Amino acid sequence: MRFNENRWEVELHIHLDGAFRPSTVYRYAEKKGIHVPGSNAEEFTSRLAITQPNSLSSFLQTFDYIISPIAGDKEAINQITLDFVEDCVTRGGHCYVEPRFSPHILTGGKLSAEEVTKTVLDALERGGANHDLQWRAILCMMRGNPEWSDDVVAIAKKFQPYGVVAVDVAGDDKPCDGTNTDPRIKEAFKKAKAGGLHCIAHAGENGPAASVTEAVHEMFAERIGHGYHILDDPAVYKDVRERNIHFEASFSPSNVCPLSSKLTGSVHGEWSSHPITRFEADKVNYSISTDDPTVTGQWMQAEKRMLAMQMVLEGEQFHMANLRAAEACFLGAEDKAASATSGVNHAALSAQQPPGRRAEEL
After folding, report:
1. Residue 51: which pLDDT band, with cuts at 50, 70 and 90?
2. Which residues does residue 202 pair with via DSSP β-bridges, in sequence order?
3. Percent of the chain residues past pLDDT 70, beyond the cut
4. Which is catalytic among the residues 205, 214, 222, 303?
5. Hey, is 135 helix, strand or coil?
6. 213: closest CA among 180, 183, 187, 165?
7. 217-271 pLDDT, tens per residue?
8. What is the pLDDT of residue 343?
9. Bridge-partner residues for 139, per DSSP?
10. At what angle are helices 41-48 and 22-32 packed, to 10 degrees?
């Protein structure tokens, strides 16, 4: 892993379709006559950003405006992916990233999910080479569309040689009770594991702690997306800690997306009581991610400045969280080996000018 003095961030949980550059989305919307909020790109950008806590379902509704101008258009998908790579470097400070996406959501009724995947991977390859960004890709099944699950795994297996390393299940997990994930999703995870793919699951975000148990024990999840509600059940919390689940490398705790957790309504109360503070105190295997920077308005470096400003974490804690991300990522062993002895001092983050109004209001 190529850490350097200017770019050292490792991000494991970022949705490609939650990181589209708004100005590009607006340009394609105008070109195609698709109505989106705002009379220009700047206004559209501000209308997309959610600034107050709400529900996860409301948070996800914003994606209707983001997806429709891009879906089904190879040129647009290519451009939005190239933008993503550039923004990872210039706004996120990334040296490594694992973007995830649902290929079926981007078909737009005009492309196959396989065509979408190939277009994204080609753009990631070219963009990564141009910007010296290492990456691996994750394909998402969707809780609301379990009929896609087999196809997602088949596509992921086909494109393993070209950078796909894992499958995930995304979508609102609030209905999950720890037993009722659709059998088609569970069966697809079995096939993914048998085919040598890594497994991840969004769980314990809006759903109960039992949804994390289901993900780990029945869907082979090595990393958990979000997972805040494991704190509600001491037995589940003990189990995932003992398994060293990365809350997002073997059997994992969770990937933590601080601002999005507030905006989706998954986490309530003061920043001082955010689950990340408990994870840190208990030495849980967690890393920091942004989830959907188009909607939260924050890329990784701004996210960390916000946490520093809110006195949730400080310099060395950021450094260790980033190293845990490097250890939990799905790079091959040789590429990952360098990260074990490399590192950059993150202490300066806490001294940087924090972002403004949005962090202060939450």
Report:
1. low
2. 225
3. 83
4. 205
5. strand
6. 180
7. 999 999 999 898 999 999 999 999 999 999 972 222 233 444 444 444 444 556 6
8. 47
9. 101, 167
10. 120
Calpha distance 214→210 (Å, rounded): 6
For 220, other C-beta atoms within 10 Å of its C-beta total: 20
Element (H, E) at 98: strand 94-101
CB 339, CB 330: distance < 8 Å: no
Q: How far apart are CA 357 and CA 88, in angstroms?
A: 23
Phi/psi for 140 (5° steps) reads -105, 130
Tokens of 360: 């202060």
Nearest-CA neighbor of 158 among 111, 103, 77?
A: 103
3-state helix, strand, coil in the chain (%, to 5): 50, 15, 35
Does residue 205 carry a catalytic annotation?
yes
Map out the domains of the chain as residue ranges.
9-331
Nearest-Å Rg of the Cα atoms of the chain is: 19
Helix, strand, or coil (residue 144):
coil
- Please tell me the predicted confidence (pLDDT) of residue 352: 41
Identify whether the C-beta of residue 331 lies closer than 8 Å to the C-beta of residue 359: no
Contacts of 254 (CB under 8 A, 6+ apart): 204, 212, 223, 224, 225, 226, 227, 228, 230, 240, 245, 246, 247, 248, 286
- The CATH fold assigned to 9-331 is TIM Barrel (3.20.20)
Give residue-wise pLDDT tens across range 65-99.
899 999 999 999 999 999 999 999 999 999 999 99
Beta-carbon contacts of residue 304 (< 8 Å; ≥ 6 apart): 288, 313, 318, 346, 349
